[in-house]
Amino acid sequence: MSSKDLWMRDVITSYGLLVLIFLTMVISILRKWPNLRQYVYKVHLTGFEVECAELMVPYKKHLFKSLQYIVSSDKVLRSMGCIRLLEIGVKTGENIQFYSDSTHLIGVDRNLKLPEYLINGNRSWQFSHIIIERLIVGDGSSLKEIPTGYVDVVVTTRSLCSVKSLQSTLREIHRVLTPGGQYLFIEHVPENEGTFVRWLQKVLSQTKIWPSLFGGCHLDIDPIVNIKDVGFHHVTWDIFTLNGYVSHPFHLILSRQHILGVAIR
User: Fold this and answer.
1) What is the residue range of 88's domain?
2) Each residue's pLDDT tens digit, 54-85
3) Mapping DSSP to helix (H, G, I), strand (E, B) and coil, where does residue 174 land?
4) CA neighbor of 177 nearest in space, from 157, 160, 155, 152
5) Which residues pair with 257 in a beta bridge?
6) Start and end of every Methyltransferase type domain (predicted)?
7) How far lies 30's CA from each of 125, 163, 179, 206, 209, in Å?
8) Which helix or strand (DSSP H or E) is residue 249 part of?
9) How many CB atoms lie within 10 A of CB 221?
10) Contact 109, 89 (CB under 8 A)
11) What predicted TM-score, i.e. pTM, was given to this entire model?
12) Are 29 and 51 found together in one domain?
C-alpha cells in the first residue's frame, strides 16, 4: 500500500465520523429550514415588531390624528360618519387602536391566520371598535379584489420593505384610493451612504440572509422616490430615528431610520 493510500486511510479513519455527523446535521437543517424560518419570523413579529410599534406610538398619534377629519367618498359611510381604510401589512394589529370607531377595515397580509387572530384571538376585543370589511391574503402588489377609487385611506407601517414589487404596490395604493384620499405611511429606510450600518444593510439584503429569515424584509429599500413618482397630487414627509429599549437592539440598529408622511391622491 502506497504512502498516499495510507494517508487517505488515516484521514477517513480519523475524520470520517466527523464528516458523517456534519453531513447529517446539514441535511437535518435543510429539511427543517422552512419551519425554522416560520418560527423565527413569528418570534420577530410578536416580539421585536410589537416593541417597535410601542416606540412609535407618539409618531403614530401624530400621523393618524388626521383620520378624524377625513370625510368618506362613500355616501352610506359618510352618512354614518365612517371611513373605509385599507391597511397593507396588518401584522399583529398594532395600528387598529388609532382607527376611529366603526372604521371599515380592509386588511391585507400574508398571514393565513389573520382572520382567526383578529376575530377570534385572545386580543380580538381590542379590535371590536372597527368593522372588518374584508381580509385579503397578499402583500399589496396586487389588489384586484378592490375596485378603483374604493377606499378613503391606505396605511402602511414598516411593510413596504417586504413586498414583492414596490412599484406595483404603490401603483395599487394610488389606484384604490378615492380622489383626494390619503396614503399614510411610516417606513424604515437605509442609513446614509458610507456608514458601516449602510454597508451591513446592503450585504444582509442582497445576500438574501435577512429577507429569508424576516418575512422578505429588505433593509436597503428607500421608498420615498417611488412614492413621489407614482402620481400622487401632493406628498409630504419627515425623517426620524427610532430610539428606545427593545429586546433585540441589533434589529433596531438596522432599521431605526424612518420616513413618516402623507400622500394625497
Assistant:
1) 47-264
2) 999 999 999 999 999 999 999 999 999 999 99
3) helix
4) 152
5) 241
6) 86-185
7) 40, 25, 49, 21, 15
8) helix 249-254
9) 18
10) yes
11) 0.85
12) no
Degrees (nearest 5) of the Cα angle 181, 184, 187? Answer: 150
Report yes or no: 140 and 173 within 8 Å, Cβ to Cβ: yes
Query: Measured over all CA atoms, what is the biggest interatomic distance in the chain, rounded to whole angstroms?
Result: 95
Residue type, 222: D
Residues in the chain: 265
Assess whether 12 and 128 both reside in one domain. no
Is 62 in the same domain as 12? no
Q: Which helix (H) or strand (E) holds 211?
A: helix 209-213
- Across the range 44-61, mean pLDDT stands at 88
Give every CB contact of residue 127 below 8 A, 6+ residues apart in sequence.
93, 96, 118
Q: Of 17-26, 98-107, 224-233, give the lowest mean pLDDT range.
A: 17-26
Beta-bridge partners for 261: 185, 237
C-alpha cell belonging to residue 67: 383620520
In the block, residue with C-alpha cell 387598529: 96
